[in-house]
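Quiz preparation item.
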């Protein structure tokens, strides 16, 4: 059967989400994803798909064989920079996306070299997708004065926690979740992970972001246990 070519304009790529994600507000947003491992890669892909116009990716790591199943990298990505491999997939989803890549660790000085990040304070969104409490602390202290929206995704096996803030500079709650290292989970929080858990965590982060875009109240602390099917909101 001969394939039927469509003449529909690509301007309608977001037509089914427009009543949920306001395009005019989204068009003014600049997002930063810190860490493109399990959750971060899925989040970057979802941001690209919904039409974020500008996206910064920062991660120092390279793709390993152990990342293929749980982070949905392709076999040909092994050995490549995670930010480059993720950016390639994002461009396939949305060629119009402006991408800025930083294949390095996040440092306190990083914010100075990110592409004009925070220049439009109202529309800057930070997504923290790292697996270290110490790194989360550093990120929070560095970006909270520049971000209008902040979300942190955490996972351990089939347990997800998503924290969000729509007023980072005035937020006093999030800092209480940055517990001392000696009380942290023993080992990387992604030591046991699945791509479906990461995808759900990313979706929950993006849903908080879209609530913020619509001016709706966000949930500051969501926890979901997939094994027991329990969802809690603090």
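Solution:
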């Amino acid at each position: 059967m001969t394939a039927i070519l469509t003449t529909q304009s690509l301007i309608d790529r977001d037509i089914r989400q427009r009543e949920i994600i306001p395009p005019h507000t989204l068009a003014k947003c600049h997002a930063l994803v810190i860490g493109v491992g399990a959750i971060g890669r899925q989040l970057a892909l979802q941001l690209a798909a919904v039409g974020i116009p500008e996206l910064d990716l920062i991660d120092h790591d390279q793709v390993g064989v152990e990342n293929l199943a749980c982070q949905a990298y392709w076999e040909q990505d092994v050995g490549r920079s995670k930010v480059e491999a993720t950016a390639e997939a994002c461009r396939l989803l949305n060629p119009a996306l402006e991408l800025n890549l930083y294949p390095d660790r996040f440092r306190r000085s990083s914010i100075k070299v990110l592409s004009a990040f925070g220049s439009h304070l109202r529309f800057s969104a930070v997504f923290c997708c790292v697996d270290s409490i110490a790194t989360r602390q550093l990120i929070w202290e560095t970006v909270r004065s520049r971000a209008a929206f902040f979300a942190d995704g955490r996972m351990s096996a089939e347990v997800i926690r998503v924290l969000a803030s729509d007023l980072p500079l005035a937020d006093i709650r999030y800092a209480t979740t940055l517990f001392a290292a000696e009380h942290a989970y023993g080992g990387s929080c992604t030591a046991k992970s699945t791509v479906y858990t990461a995808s759900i965590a990313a979706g929950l982060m993006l849903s908080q972001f879209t609530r913020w875009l619509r001016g709706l109240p966000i949930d500051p602390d969501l926890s979901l246990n997939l094994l027991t099917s329990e969802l809690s909101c603090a």
